[in-house]
Write a structure and sequence with these properties.
Chain A: GO terms for molecular function: dipeptide transmembrane transporter activity. Chain A: This is ABC transporter permease. Chain A: InterPro entries: BPD_transp_1_N, MetI-like, MetI-like_sf. Chain A: Belongs to the binding-protein-dependent transport system permease family. Chain A: It is a multi-pass membrane protein. The structure holds two protein chains of two kinds. Chain A is built from 13 helices and no strands. By secondary structure, chain A is mainly alpha-helical. In chain A, helix 6 (126-140) packs across helix 8, helix 7 crosses helix 10 (221-258) and helix 10 (221-258) runs parallel beside helix 11. Chain A is globular, with a radius of gyration of 24 Å. Chain B has helices spanning 4-7, 67-74, 101-107, 119-122, 129-140, 145-158, 164-167, 177-189, 207-224, 235-241, 259-264, 269-276, 319-323, 346-352; strands at residues 23-34, 41-52, 56-60, 83-91, 94-95, 112-115, 195-199, 227-232, 244-249, 252-258, 331-333, 336-338. In chain B, helix 5 crosses helix 6 (145-158), helix 5 (129-140) runs parallel beside helix 8 (177-189) and helix 6 (145-158) packs across helix 8. By secondary structure, chain B is α/β, with parallel strands linked by helices. Helix content of chain B is 33%, strand content 21%. The relative contact order of chain B is 0.13. Chain B has an eight-stranded mixed beta sheet, with helices on both faces. Chain B has a four-stranded antiparallel beta sheet with strand order 2-1-4-5, covered by helices on one side. Chain B has a domain at 126-190. The chains are: A mainly alpha, B alpha/beta. At the A-B interface, helix 9 and helix 10 of A face helix 3, helix 5 and helix 8 of B.
């Protein structure tokens, strides 16, 4: 089986798993969609009718079978709130979330990887200690707290950036202006994580024999660190970026809520409170597939970095 | 009148006494310490050694005796927090220890090169062997990419890698252990160094390949006149390839001399014990080799006297061996020195046991 087929099979199995898990997970949320839609004063009869309409009166396992069969044809049901196909609703808000997540991840990579390399190179120095302490704070503070604090500082006090919304209808520069603060908060929070893991990947490589050999051969320190060592550390660093992509998507959801930005995050949040099962399922599925896709792409990239991996 | 000069017979040709070749690398009193819980730990202690152009010095001793550390110290490669505490390192007569890190870097790989024990881990797995040789060439010379690559092909051919213009684009994992060591040798000789330090170059290789690698080193040495330092614990190799031998124990030199002298009349009980533990081809098949009794020393807690005293069959418990600091390698005979209080009486002492 060649590489691509293997990747695709893996993807299919993962997606099937995600569909199954989210289906049952969503049904564990307490509350009844019919009750939610009709309000507290609905009669038992009206509730029963609505449940029958939505198929909620059948055994869960039957509901799952029907759902899975329809999912195979790309039909993930309709949102019970808007009546539009759930997948369509979610995909329409994907660009907003993707923009935020990628902008945040880009900031995190640009800050985190160089800092990780520099601190590994100067292990034990004051600059290493300082950066590591700051990074530890960055990891320890929840991203929504950083978001609220930055809104207070940069929007309320300094009035540099707007606090709310994405200016979706506005001009390009205006959209960027709205993006800076949420993407920055996300980026800094993820950068802390990338810095720490890049540092440990680099430290491990810098202790290898071949690095000692390069030094013994008089290769300049700059070349040793930024070329000979970095390329070796790139596989673990790419793996970290893959993991943090999932994490930045998750954080992007929190950030969307804090900054009242449109996106999958805010949509899923609303769907959960409305017990809009189909919408939640489609939302989680899209996020999960995005994570799996990005990681599959990274898997392919490993082979470009490390010749031993492409040989397999 | 005949020219008187004509009646004088020309002087008989005198066999020319070869002037001793210049010293390529010399260490004097080199001492390296690491910080420990109870003050600094001396890992190598007052090492003085020399190797001449074209000569081969073998440095032998157990693992942890400081063989490699001695030469890493000399090249400014001691990993922090270790540091060279005192001593001198001369290359071609010029002192280098006080030089800046950048000046030392320029010497490393160009004037003094090193090859290491394990060729499987000494090459960078994500670069082709060509890229790695070119990296060394370009670290020290202004060669352009194409010229450096052409030179790398030559070097691979010189270390007998077959089909070098194709193999240059191989990654290390595509090569055998012996070939990888050849690639490392190609890197080490790329800039025609004065001194090549080979740190257990064949320990990780199988026996037939060992001889090929050492013969290659000997050829290269004969061709370029470089000095060779062979760090090893294999006394068989020492006898075959070295001119001089230095024996180390617990970070100190215990015996230094020419191969002939040290092998025929070792003047330190540790050296004698090492010789006894070499298997003999003509010995009985089930012969049990005498191992050196006791534990290898912990350099953080050496006894106040001779470091070998606790394990020494001759000196153990003797008052002088237990209490007095070990002798510096004071001259007993020219060119053959030992750090044993009883160097002159070892034969009698052994016979008396």
């Amino acid at each position: 089986m060649d590489r691509l087929t293997r990747q695709l099979t893996q993807l299919a199995i993962t997606v099937f798993g995600i569909v199954t898990v989210t289906f049952f997970l969503v049904r564990m949320i307490p509350g009844d969609p019919a009750q939610y839609m009709l309000g507290d004063y609905a009669t038992e009869e009206a509730l029963a009718t609505l449940r029958a309409q939505l198929g909620l009166d059948r055994p869960v396992i039957v509901q799952y079978g029907l759902y899975a069969l329809r999912a195979l044809t790309g039909d993930f049901g309709a949102s019970v709130v808007t009546g539009r196909p759930a997948l369509e609703e979610i995909l329409s808000s994907l660009p907003d979330s993707a923009l935020l997540a990628f902008a945040g991840l880009a900031i995190a990579v640009v800050i985190g990887i160089p800092l990780g390399i520099v601190t590994a190179e100067r292990q034990g120095s004051w600059s290493d200690l300082l950066i590591m302490v700051v990074a530890l704070f960055g990891i320890s503070f929840p991203v929504f707290w950083l978001g609220l604090a930055s809104v207070l500082l940069f929007s309320q006090e300094l009035k540099w950036f707007p606090a709310l919304g994405a200016s979706s209808g506005g001009g390009f520069l205006d959209q960027i202006h709205h993006l800076v603060l949420p993407a920055g908060v996300l980026g800094v929070s993820v950068a802390a994580y990338i810095t720490r893991l890049t540092r440990s990947a680099m430290l491990e490589v810098l202790n290898q024999d071949y690095i000692r050999v390069a030094r013994a051969m008089g290769v300049p320190q700059r070349r040793v660190v930024w070329r000979l060592a970095l390329k070796n550390a790139l596989v673990p660093i790419l793996a970290i970026v893959g993991v943090t992509f999932a994490w930045s998507l998750g954080s992007a959801i929190l950030i969307e809520v804090v900054f009242s930005r449109p996106g999958i995050g805010s949509m899923i949040l609303k769907a959960v409170s409305a017990r809009d099962y189909q919408l939640v399922q489609a939302g989680v599925l899209v996020l999960a597939v995005a994570v799996v896709l990005v990681n599959s792409l990274l898997d392919l990239a490993y082979g470009l970095v490390d010749p031993r991996l492409s040989a397999r | 009148m005949a020219n008187p000069n004509l009646s004088v017979a020309p002087p008989p040709p005198v066999a020319p006494v070869p002037a001793p070749r210049p010293v390529a690398l010399e260490l004097r009193d080199l001492t390296t310490v690491f910080p420990g819980d109870d003050g600094p730990i001396t890992v190598i202690d007052g090492i003085s050694l020399a190797v001449r152009d074209g000569g081969t010095l073998a440095v032998v001793g157990e693992s942890g005796s400081g063989k490699s550390m001695t030469f890493l110290s000399a090249l400014g490669l001691v990993a922090s927090p270790g540091r060279v505490q005192r001593g001198e390192v001369r290359i071609g007569g010029a002192e280098i220890l006080g030089r800046t890190p950048e000046q030392l870097r320029r010497l490393r790989g160009a004037v003094v090169s090193m090859i290491f024990q394990d060729p499987l881990t000494a090459l960078n797995p994500v670069f082709t062997i060509g890229e790695q040789i070119v990296e060394v060439l370009r670290a020290h010379s202004g060669l352009g990419r194409a010229a450096a690559r052409a030179r790398a092909v030559e070097l691979l051919a010189r270390v007998q890698i077959p089909d070098p213009s194709r193999r240059i684009d191989d990654y290390p994992h595509q090569l055998s252990g012996g070939q990888r060591q050849r690639v490392l040798i190609a890197m080490a000789i790329a800039l025609s160094p004065k001194v090549l330090i080979a740190d257990e170059p064949t320990t990780a290789l199988d026996v037939t390949v060992q001889a090929q690698i050492l013969d290659l080193l000997a050829d290269l040495q004969a061709e370029t006149g470089m000095a060779l330092v062979l760090i090893t614990h294999d006394l068989g190799l020492v006898a075959r390839y070295a001119d001089d031998v230095a024996v180390m124990y617990a970070g100190r030199l215990v015996e230094v001399g020419s191969i002939e002298e040290v092998f025929s009349a070792p003047r330190h009980p540790y050296t004698r014990a090492l010789f006894r533990s070499i298997p003999r081809l003509d010995g009985p098949v089930d012969e049990e080799l005498p191992a050196i009794e006791g534990q290898p020393p912990n350099v953080a807690r050496l006894p106040p006297g001779c470091a070998f005293e606790p394990r020494c069959t001759l000196g153990h418990g003797r008052a002088d061996c237990c209490t007095k600091r070990p002798l510096p390698l004071a001259g007993d005979r020219a060119g053959h020195r030992s750090a044993c209080f009883h160097a002159d009486r070892l034969d009698q002492m052994e016979a008396a046991r």
